[in-house]
Amino acid sequence: MREYELSNARWRTSTYSDGNGGSCVEVADGVPGIVPVRDSKASDGPVLLLGATAWAEFVGSVI
């Protein structure tokens, strides 16, 4: 299993979050080939690592 260094990741609230401070996810930019995703309310919690294609398919299915 490959490990990714995310300590310097540039996290931002996803443009697909609802924007009211409730159901928000953050994504990190600049990690080649993957999209790290985390709960904005638990920034020190677990991170999901999704392939770019999987992220695009997920976003396409929920909007």
Report a brief summary of the structure:
The chain is an alpha+beta fold. The chain contains 1 helix and 4 strands, in the order ββββα. The protein has one helix at 52-62, and strands at residues 10-13, 25-29, 34-39, 48-51.
Largest sheet properties = 4 strands, antiparallel
Distance between the termini: 31 Å
What's the total helix number?
1
Strand-and-helix sequence, N→C?
A: EEEEH
Structural class: alpha+beta
Count of individual beta strands: 4
* Helical residue percent band: 10-25%
Outline = globular
The strand order across the widest sheet is 1-2-3-4
Roughly how many Å is the radius of gyration?
A: 12 Å
Estimate the strand proportion.
25-35%
Mean pLDDT: 82
> Which residue ranges are poorly predicted, with pLDDT under 50 across at least 5 consecutive positions?
none
